[in-house]
Amino acid sequence: MTVRKSHLSTAMLTPAAMAAIVPVASCQSGEKKSEETKPFNIVYIMSDDHTQQMMSCYDTRYAETPNMDRIANEGVRFTNSFVANSISGPSRACMLTGKHSHKNGFTDNEHSVFDGSQPTFPKYLQQAGYQTAIIGKWHLESLPTGFDKWEIVPGQGDYYNPRFIQQNGDTIVRQGYLTNLITDLSLDWLENERDKEKPFALLIHHKAQHRNWMADTCNLELYEDKTFPVPETFFDDYATREAASTAEMRIFDHMDNIYDLKMDRDDKDSYLKSTYRAFYSRMDSVQQAKWDAFYKPIIDDFYSRNLKGRELAEWKYQRYMRDYLKTLKSLDDNIGRVLDYLEENDLLDNTLIVYTSDQGFYMGEHGWFDKRFMYEESFRTPLVMRLPKGFDRRGDIDQMVQNIDYGPTFLDLAGVEVPSDMQGESMMPLLRGENPADWRDDLYYHYYEYPAEHAVKRHYGVRDSRYKLIHFYNDIDKWELFDLQEDPNELNNIYGKPGTEEITARMKERLKKAQIKYDDPILQTYPLD
Ligand code: SGN
Ligand code: CA
Q: Is the per-residue pLDDT at 151 higher than 90?
């Protein structure tokens, strides 16, 4: 790798990056510098609520995601990738700051406002001469800071003819389907707006796969002939797990027939009918005509069958899976567009391409949709990377990584010293193919959004390679302990069971160490002795 000095302040460079600097050959002066001689670019693509079970390079049962898989096949796939707090705003704040929620202040979607004056990795990259941009979902309440260019969707965004907030403060409506539009804007910035002399970090943040999974009209017909096997834990009775039993995210009970499953008819009502109608009314008449032509026969068939109980649960699950996959088709196609652009413009060799999601999601496991819990499906998140030239690591990286590691990794890649108050670790040694003996052997997690939608109680916990210890607190005081080797589906809470005393003590010790290391004040409220 060669780093062109002119764009980096040497004061900010690590010794490794300094060593990589080679003087620009004098014969090149005055000529346009090639991409080869610049610091590495970063293209960070993050979706919303996309989960490993629905990405074919992780799980072949349901989805086909050839473009996401291309990133993994040409680069690396992280097999143990996790978040620090499994919900949108908090996850994004952890990613931007490299810090756990209690340190970056954005603990939950309901009350938090991101303090945009705090340092973030895009700000450090800017100081080092990078151009930074973010397009798409932001969800941090305050407006973005640290970006030369931003155009974001308000709140959760709209799938159809969406609103965008622009840097001049205007809110505009763009005609089309959001996943395509976010990509159009991103490619437009790459092609026409950025300063091509500078290295860049582009954050492409999709709304897809967020609820209520409204597919592009061109994909509506897909997967209708498919019937998906329900997950093993679909009919979970939540025995031994009180907080799981009170959560309101069951496909059967809480998935809305109209809003989530699009079974809208004038003579039918539901809790979220008006929310659905607001989204539907964003479509123009051509879009609505295609939508209606597809859904009308399904709606009439659904109401004529008057399904109940298990049959209704399974019917809802099938529709959920199909809608999710149709929405995912657009997401994967649009990732392909970005990869093609980078390839056609000779940017692949000099760019780190990352694909991840703000957290994982339940696809019927435990009978659920949504996320929030520290259980595996939502604690994990997809993470694949295509590495720039010179990084020969390929295949699987099995070390435990977390979204607080992204910022440190990007700074390290750019040759910027990782600030000591960032709590994540740079993954660069892993990308170089090293196997650091002192890599973390457990992960800390803390979720705060309760009371709130889906009624998932507040909890924190620690996970090592085999065991997971969780404490649900606030208006509940329950511990859960799982042996992931014996019980990968986390059905059998063994906390307090005879014979688990030693493991429990060891995991509590780990938890305490993590809370001290990350300086989480919750330790004062619930001391661990
Ligand atoms: C919305 C959704 C919830 C979802 C949260 C958080 N309800 O409130 O189902 O859990 O977002 O999601 S909806 O009726 O508005 O669709 S997050 O990914 O942004 O954190
Ligand atoms: Ca999300």
A: yes
